[in-house]
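Thread: "does anyone have the structure for this chain?"

Original post by V.I.:
We have the sequence but no experimental structure in hand. Need at least a predicted one for the grant figures.
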Amino acid sequence: MVDLDPRLVRELERIAPAEPAPEPRWRELRPRHNRVRVAAVAIVVAAAIGLAVPWQRGPASLSAAEAARVVQRAAAALAPTGGASGGVLHVRMHVTVASPYHPKAVAWSGDEERWTDERGARTFRFRTTFPNLTAPIELGGSRRSGAISVYDPSTATLYSRHRPIGPFADPVEQAKRELRGGTGLTVRRAGDTYRIEDDRDIRSPTVLVVDAKTFRPIRQISTIAGAAPFALYSQKPRAPLSEEWQTVTEYRVYEYLSDGDLASIRAQHPRAKIAAARAMPRSFRERFQPWTGL
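Reply from O.Q.:
Generated one for you, tokens below.
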């Protein structure tokens, strides 16, 4: 997420504090002072918008032909190196989620490592500490069948169920989808990177930053319009309520491997017992919400 200038944040809080005092009666307001306050707020908010929206500033955009070439190269870097048959995508990343209305407070964050076999049954496995988990949890399953298993190392048990894979959209799949529909994207050169900006949907703009040499992803900023899944609040009950969220994904590793067993949670735990999700211990379920929730 793009950080606001600290001086700007202090000025915003001085003019429009997060917990304002009770509003005075209308007859107690002096029109001259009120006009000054409104004008000051308008100036500061305009400045904040200019600083906080990354695709409204920076270097000039590339020509249509240059942009198309960059988008094509970036799409190829995200795709399997072996062509349509693919391989095992290995990604390590750090994810943060915050409300743009509370820019100083990160609501949820965590590290994640995942393996996805993009051939056949499209099995996957990942370990994550998102959102704000004190220890990583390991999950795996098949995107084709929708089955998912959660591994409990204390009992060496895989608890199986059918449920959505995660509380937010998969950033890798989102990036691939946007690059496939490459028309309408804006591309800018920024140092050793390219910024691919997608504001075709003004409610959900995204910025994908890729390396200028390898075209591999470095950072992805996405806006999500809508309330966060309620289960996320189990890990941070005091997180703000918001109708809009920004997720920042920092890619640490992005590569393709050939070993399909890396994407299979059962291959990684061949001696684990298999049990239904309803048999999951309550302490384990509560500790690793929302991944263990019904």
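V.I.: this helps a lot. The domain at 59-287 is CATH 2.50.20.10 (outer membrane lipoprotein receptor (LolB), chain A).
O.Q.: and The chain has six helices and twelve strands.
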